[in-house]
Each structure stands twice: as structure tokens, then as C-alpha cells.
């Protein structure tokens, strides 16, 4: 039985500890009741850019491979088979071949075959007649020339050039295999998978219900009879529901540090952990339209930030300051501290930074008598709204007056993807702690999830250089240099990297909360209830 990997909230540590209380013989049955923070735009993971979709719908699916879910820190060393039984690289590193499981069935009874693998990735690469309405991770597969099959139980990815990180991308919770015979439109409302739980219903703004898959190919799993997610957008109301016993578990990694104290005071037996979640709070600017097409104004924005104030107010000190990549020790690719602090805006003298920012604003034509009025767009949930309010307050010191513009989840990602905003407060969840995922998805020219229109072809060449590098030490140095350049270019100013809490009732066993837990494909298949 899996142990709980946890960061004890009181200890304020970054490395997980074990909770042996989850040991024991799993019991069968029961419905796991979880509150959901908001209503997802659809049920299609491949068309989403938020773990509001992953959390309720990943239990419906399987990947080819998956990060081992009882290892606290995702890495290439913790990847295990899922729909694939095994995999092998060619000698030149340009072909990755998977041997697939036999006898696996989709929830509608049809057999899973290699054709489903090809269909899924052809759609992701934009090569099939059927199209995704949104395809935020298309850039992940830019180096994949073709996906081919050899019989029903072998699929190969042929690459244009070596890309060792491809396997990690395939292990992400954003990479489920879809059925060939179900249309993308149906997958948005009635998803069909091979996973431990089958879809029952999705009532927008109300609930999402899943039931046990009795034909799951992993024998003896899942232990639960089903999972029910109740959508409650008010965080305080949701927490009250948990402490009163209405819910067995909070929405994963959504309990703020102040609310965590409230939970522990009202429900002292609850199990609560805090983890780095590989989610950065950041500023997005539409650099292709005035006024933020002016690099001086963008640089002033980066200089105005008092990051420690955000960390103190929002997280009571339990968050991390860094660049694009997840800070250490949770992250494996973080810039050294001295390099980070050499970047404009990251130095400790906030007053000096802001004085420099005011000079840049004055150069752009603004000042005490001519202030810049902007709308600050953000998603209408607390973890977006709260930092947006702080940002608006801090910008006042450099002659920028912000007006909060809140947007519902269903509209938020389409809105920013089509660049229908000027300035935004955003959270960027990275699906894998790997530079290939973060750099190509968020910063490559033309990527759907490059919300700021940032485009630097010279840096893109470095993206490719680090991607092909097999020597980890050499690759890290390239990654640090790229990260530094992204911050200096004000591509997407990073405010902080969050640590968030998750809580569950003491009778819930087998929960694993990991670094990057929101995106690693967690499916609740080992969870059981001792009551």
C-alpha cells in the first residue's frame, strides 16, 4: 500500500515525509466526496489548460506511461508503464517504441489498440481530419515526425532530432490516450477512457460524478465505488463543508496557508499537507498592442514587484521566488540564487528597483500628472483574484492605475489565447518539471499557450540546444541561461511559485500529494476509506 508523501505544514519543509497511518489492508467500496473549486469549461483534458479539468477527469483515463505516484518528486527515473508494457529508444535517440498492453477495453467495451495511440497524437500534432477546438500543448510534439503502428500492440514515435524529455512529456497528467472511435466533441461532454473510473455525469456549476470501472486492467483496483465532485466556487464555504464532514477531501492543492490553520483548528484530526505545486503566479502582457508593446513599460512592471510582500501576504512566507523553472529543492532545474538575484527586479532593494521603474515610465511619457489606466484581467477564483489586487496596489507607485477585470474559468483561457487582454494576472501550471515542457509551451513563437506573443528566435535555438543535450549538468547550465534571458526580456514576469495545502479526513487512506501533484495524472485508483 502506498504511503502518504507529505510536507508537514507546521514544519515548513520542502521534502516529503511518510505517514505510516495509511498502511493496512485496503477496504473496498464507498464514494469519495471532494469539493471542486470551479466549473471546468469541458471534460476534455487535451483541450484544457487548467487542472480544474485534470483533477476530476484524469481518473477516467490512462497514459502510455506515468510518473510513479508514490515517489514524491517527478523525474525521468520515476516513470513507469501504464497502457504501455515497455518502451525502448533507438540507438540514435530518434525513435521511441512502445509495446502495448493487450486485453484493455475502453469504457464502452471496445478494445484498446495502437490505432488509438496514433489517433490521439495525430490530433495533438494537427495531422488528422478531426480537430481539437483548443490545442494548448501542440508545441510538445514539434519534434515528432510521425507516430506509426506495427500491429495492434506496438506504436512508435519517430523524431526529427533526439529529444530525451519526450518520455517525461508522455508521463504527464495532460497526456491521456483518447479513443479513436469517439469524436473530440463527445469527449468534451461524455469522455470515454480506459481508466479506473467511468464517467457518469457532468452538470456545469453543480457536480461531476464518476463510478468504478469493474473491468479495469489493473486487477483489484480501484478500491472506491466512485468519486463525486461538488462544485463550490466560494473557498470559505467549501472549507466549512470539509470541516463539517460533508466532504472527504478538499480540492487538491487549493487550501491556502491561512485556511489551512482554520482547518486544523476546527478539524484537528484532518490530515493536511503542503507541497510546492509547480504553479507560478505571473504577469502576462499583450506585447503586440499598446501600451505594452513598449519594452520600457514592460521592464517597469518587472521592476515594481515586491515579491516578498506577495509571499508574506498570500502565503505567510510559504512560497518560493524564482524564474520560469520550479525553485529548488522542489524543482530540479532552478537557477542558483546568486544568478537569480542578479536579474533586474529580483534584487533585494525594492525602493531602488521602483525608482528605476519610475524613470522608465517617465521615458515612456507617464508620470504623476499623466498616469496609465489599464484593466487587469484575471480568472474569477481566489488564487487569481487575491494576487491581482496586490499587483494593482503595487503598480500605483509607478503611475499605473489598474482596474480589476474578473473572467469566468470557461472564458479565461480562450480569452488570453486569442490575446483579448492588455495586462493580466495569471497562474501558469507546468505539467512536468522539465524545461522542454515549460519553454516550448509558454515561450515558443506561435505556441497557443504563449499568451504574451513573446517571440525570440535566438532563444528558441537555445531551447533546441538544451532539449538535445543528454548530459544533465551541461543541460542545466543551458537552462539557467535561457531562464535568465526570459526574465530579462520580461517575457512573463514571475512573481512567485506557490506552495498549497491539501486536506483529507483521517479515514481516507492511500492519498499521495507530490511536488507537481496537480498535473501528474493522479487517478485515485489506490485510495480507500477505512470507515
UniProtKB/TrEMBL annotation:
Q: What is its main location?
A: periplasm
A Gene Ontology biological process in which this protein takes part is: peptide transport
Q: Where is the Solute-binding protein family domain?
A: 79-447
Q: Subcellular localization, per the record?
A: Periplasm
GO MF: peptide transmembrane transporter activity
Q: Signal peptide location in the record?
A: 1-23
| Keywords annotated in UniProt | Signal
Keyword check for S-adenosyl-L-methionine, yes or no. Answer: no
CDD domains, alphabetized: PBP2_NikA_DppA_OppA_like_17 (cd08503)
Cellular component annotations (GO), alphabetically ordered = ATP-binding cassette (ABC) transporter complex; outer membrane-bounded periplasmic space
Similarity comment: family membership: Belongs to the bacterial solute-binding protein 5 family.
The protein's name? Peptide ABC transporter substrate-binding protein
Question: What organism is this sequence from?
Answer: Bradyrhizobium retamae
Amino acid at each position: 500500500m502506498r504511503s502518504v508523501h507529505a510536507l508537514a505544514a507546521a514544519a515548513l519543509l520542502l521534502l516529503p515525509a511518510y505517514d505510516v497511518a495509511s498502511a493496512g489492508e485496503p477496504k473496498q467500496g464507498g464514494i469519495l466526496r471532494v469539493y471542486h473549486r470551479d466549473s471546468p469549461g469541458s471534460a476534455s483534458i487535451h483541450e484544457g489548460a487548467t487542472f480544474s479539468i485534470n483533477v476530476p477527469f484524469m481518473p477516467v483515463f490512462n497514459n502510455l506511461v506515468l510518473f510513479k505516484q508514490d515517489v514524491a518528486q517527478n523525474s525521468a527515473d520515476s516513470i513507469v508503464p501504464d497502457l504501455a508494457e515497455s518502451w525502448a529508444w533507438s540507438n540514435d535517440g530518434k525513435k521511441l517504441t512502445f509495446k502495448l498492453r493487450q486485453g484493455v477495453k475502453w469504457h464502452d467495451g471496445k478494445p484498446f489498440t495502437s490505432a488509438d495511440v496514433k489517433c490521439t497524437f495525430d490530433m495533438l500534432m494537427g495531422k488528422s481530419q478531426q480537430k481539437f477546438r483548443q490545442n494548448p500543448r501542440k508545441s510538445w510534439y514539434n519534434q515528432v515526425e510521425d507516430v506509426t503502428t506495427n500491429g495492434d500492440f506496438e506504436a512508435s514515435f519517430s523524431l526529427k532530432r533526439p529529444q530525451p524529455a519526450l518520455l517525461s512529456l508522455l508521463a504527464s497528467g495532460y497526456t491521456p490516450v483518447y479513443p479513436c472511435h469517439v469524436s473530440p466533441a463527445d469527449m468534451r461532454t461524455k469522455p470515454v477512457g480506459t481508466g479506473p473510473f467511468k464517467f457518469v455525469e457532468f452538470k456545469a456549476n453543480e457536480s461531476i460524478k464518476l463510478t468504478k470501472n469493474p473491468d479495469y486492467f489493473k486487477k483489484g483496483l480501484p478500491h472506491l465505488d466512485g468519486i463525486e465532485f461538488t462544485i463550490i466556487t466560494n473557498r470559505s464555504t467549501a472549507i466549512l463543508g470539509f470541516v463539517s464532514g460533508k466532504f472527504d477531501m478538499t480540492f487538491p492543492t487549493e487550501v491556502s496557508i491561512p485556511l489551512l490553520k482554520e482547518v486544523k483548528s476546527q478539524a484537528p484530526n484532518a490530515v493536511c499537507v503542503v507541497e510546492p505545486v509547480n504553479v507560478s503566479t505571473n504577469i502576462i502582457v499583450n506585447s503586440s498592442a499598446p501600451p505594452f508593446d513598449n519594452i520600457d513599460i514592460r521592464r517597469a512592471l518587472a521592476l515594481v514587484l515586491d515579491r516578498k510582500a506577495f509571499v508574506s501576504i498570500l502565503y505567510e512566507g510559504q512560497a518560493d521566488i524564482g524564474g520560469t523553472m520550479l525553485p529548488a529543492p522542489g524543482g530540479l532545474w532552478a537557477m542558483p540564487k546568486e544568478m537569480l538575484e542578479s536579474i533586474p527586479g529580483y534584487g533585494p532593494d525594492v525602493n531602488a528597483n521602483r525608482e528605476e521603474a519610475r524613470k522608465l515610465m517617465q521615458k515612456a511619457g507617464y508620470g504623476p500628472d499623466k498616469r496609465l489606466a489599464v484593466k487587469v484581467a484575471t480568472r474569477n477564483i481566489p488564487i487569481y483574484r487575491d494576487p491581482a489586487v496586490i499587483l494593482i496596489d503595487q503598480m500605483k507607485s509607478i503611475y499605473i492605475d489598474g482596474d480589476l477585470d474578473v473572467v469566468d474559468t470557461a472564458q479565461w483561457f480562450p480569452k488570453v489565447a486569442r490575446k483579448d487582454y492588455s495586462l493580466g494576472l495569471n497562474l501558469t501550471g507546468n505539467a512536468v518539471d522539465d524545461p522542454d515542457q515549460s519553454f516550448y509551451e509558454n515561450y515558443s513563437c506561435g505556441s497557443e499557450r504563449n499568451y504574451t506573443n513573446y517571440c525570440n528566435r535566438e532563444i528558441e535555438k537555445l531551447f533546441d540546444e538544451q532539449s538535445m543535450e543528454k548530459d544533465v549538468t551541461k543541460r542545466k547550465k543551458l537552462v539557467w541561461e535561457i531562464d535568465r534571458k526570459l526574465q530579462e526580456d520580461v517575457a512573463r514576469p514571475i512573481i512567485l511559485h506557490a506552495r498549497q495545502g491539501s486536506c483529507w479526513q483521517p479515514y481516507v487512506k492511500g492519498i499521495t500529494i507530490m511536488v507537481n501533484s496537480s498535473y501528474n495524472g493522479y487517478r485515485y485508483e489506490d485510495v480507500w476509506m477505512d470507515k
